[in-house]
């Protein structure tokens, strides 16, 4: 075989490897989106109150975000291939179990377990990309394609969720089983074996502390909507103590879950914070829109999904337009523009009326699609650039943790405001408007996180993306 043939074979294998890993990202996106669309149908089928309905989403997010650091660390310690494939098999099994769940409590439990499986799957997958492609233009393009297809999974999942729900809500559990099985068959021969030479500690005490802190924080915010103020305060204080204990553990541990040196990079910290704000605003925003369209306006799940499909514009633009913009303007200027679009999207929907036609909603939804086009992939690049190969799983876990932690906080806070407004006597539409203030505030905070770095050093994280 000649050198040209070897190079062609290598490129084909790299392309197929990227396709397998993108399939996992697509799977994660489509899984979340289908459930978001199916929520009102699940509520009716199982007779669930809003608070319990929210926990179908929050349970997944808590499992996902709470175990993400442990998942990333496990990939670094025991091998990315092993963790990726094992998590994928568990994801398949738990999703199949969810299809026969008899009640809301079981659905919530299954979603928590599915989130935990995803917490090991996703950082391992991103780490395989960042260690399989050389840092620079080739890796950046792979990451942007990965992010774009993950976004495509979410966007197409909205439509798939609408279609599947029309046949029965249980199909939103069974469909991911088929897709995950296909990804498993493709990934098995392609993911390279890891050379794990040294066993390091997983820092289980640290993982328990940070997971507890995440769970307690979200529970404290959610409890504020229907519980006592004192109860929320106590939960918040315990969460704070858990975070402090986690920090102390990381300083004292010989092999900490999160080495403090990893948090001293300004661009990476900004990327984590930006990702958290973007996810928090989006999850709260999307939750209210689905309730508005289906429960106030009476739209079907499929009509709602088609209405939100415009957000999928990022699946087309992220791999094509975003690399050009990053090369021309710098990574952080593009991120800041994306954050500005997110804040604008949430603000535009704040004036929602009972009889809004779709064209009145379109500017907000289009701005949200552009926000993800400009922010999501570049934030991923900013979080993983310059990190040693041995810590790629962990830094991927940190990124996804902040994203999912932000999503949990945003969803819980938005739900709390909506429920509290309703309890205070606000009408259904007014309660939605009140709740939409939460994503607006989060969007502004995200922009504030990105602007200083874009202003001080717009080219510091720019790449020569081809």
UniProtKB/TrEMBL annotation:
Keyword check for Cytoplasm: no
Start and end residues of each Major facilitator superfamily (MFS) profile domain: 17-458
Entry's Gene Ontology molecular function annotations: transmembrane transporter activity
Lineage top rank: taxon: Bacteria
Record flagged with keyword Cell membrane: yes
UniProt topology in membrane: Multi-pass membrane protein
Cellular component terms (Gene Ontology): plasma membrane
Residues annotated as transmembrane: 53-71, 83-102, 108-131, 143-165, 171-190, 202-221, 227-248, 269-293, 299-318, 330-350, 356-377, 398-420, 432-451
Subcellular location: Cell membrane
Main location (coarse class): membrane
Keywords from the named record: Cell membrane, Membrane, Transmembrane, Transmembrane helix, Transport
Any single Pfam family the record assigns to this protein: MFS_1
Protein's recorded name: MFS transporter
UniProt source species: Mycolicibacterium diernhoferi
């Amino acid at each position: 075989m000649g050198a040209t043939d070897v190079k062609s074979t290598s490129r084909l294998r790299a392309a197929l490897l990227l396709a397998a890993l993108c399939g996992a990202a697509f799977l994660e996106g489509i899984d979340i989106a289908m459930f978001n669309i199916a929520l009102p149908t699940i509520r009716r089928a199982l007779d669930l109150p809003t608070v319990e309905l929210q926990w179908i989403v929050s349970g997944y997010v808590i499992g996902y975000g709470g175990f993400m650091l442990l998942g990333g660390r496990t990939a670094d310690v025991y091998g990315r291939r092993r963790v990726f494939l094992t998590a994928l098999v568990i994801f398949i099994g738990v999703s199949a179990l969810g299809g026969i769940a008899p009640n809301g409590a079981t659905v919530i439990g299954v979603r928590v377990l599915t989130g935990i499986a995803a917490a090991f799957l996703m950082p391992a997958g991103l780490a395989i990309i960042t260690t399989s492609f050389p840092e620079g233009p080739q890796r950046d393009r792979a990451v942007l394609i990965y992010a774009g297809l993950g976004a495509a999974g979410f966007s197409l999942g909205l439509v798939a969720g609408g279609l599947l729900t029309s046949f029965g809500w249980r199909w939103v559990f069974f469909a991911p089983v088929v897709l995950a099985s296909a990804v498993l068959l493709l990934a098995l021969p392609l993911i390279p074996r890891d050379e794990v030479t040294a066993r390091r500690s997983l820092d289980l005490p640290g993982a328990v502390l940070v997971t507890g802190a995440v769970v307690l924080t979200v529970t404290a915010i959610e409890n504020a909507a229907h519980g006592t103020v004192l109860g929320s305060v106590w939960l918040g204080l315990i969460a704070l103590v858990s975070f402090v204990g986690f920090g102390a553990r990381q300083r004292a541990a010989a092999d900490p879950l999160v080495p403090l040196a990893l948090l001293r990079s300004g661009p990476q910290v900004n990327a984590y914070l930006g990702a958290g704000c973007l996810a928090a605003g989006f999850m709260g925003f999307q939750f209210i829109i689905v309730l508005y369209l289906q429960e106030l306006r009476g739209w079907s799940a499929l009509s709602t999904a088609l209405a939100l499909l415009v957000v999928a514009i990022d699946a087309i633009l992220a791999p094509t337009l975003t690399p050009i913009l990053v090369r021309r303007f710098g990574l952080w200027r593009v991120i800041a523009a994306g954050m500005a679009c997110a804040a604008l999207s949430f603000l535009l929907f704040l004036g929602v009326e009972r009889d809004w036609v779709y064209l009145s909603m379109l500017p907000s939804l289009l701005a949200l699609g552009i926000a993800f086009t400009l922010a999501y992939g570049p934030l991923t690049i900013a979080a993983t650039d310059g990190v040693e190969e041995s810590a790629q799983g962990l830094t991927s876990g940190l990124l996804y943790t902040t994203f999912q932690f932000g999503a949990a906080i945003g969803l819980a806070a938005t739900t709390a405001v909506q429920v509290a407004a309703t309890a205070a006597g606000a009408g259904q539409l007014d309660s939605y408007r009140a709740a939409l203030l939460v994503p607006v505030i989060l969007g502004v905070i995200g922009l504030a996180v990105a602007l200083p770095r874009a202003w001080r050093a717009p080219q510091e994280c720019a790449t020569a993306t081809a």
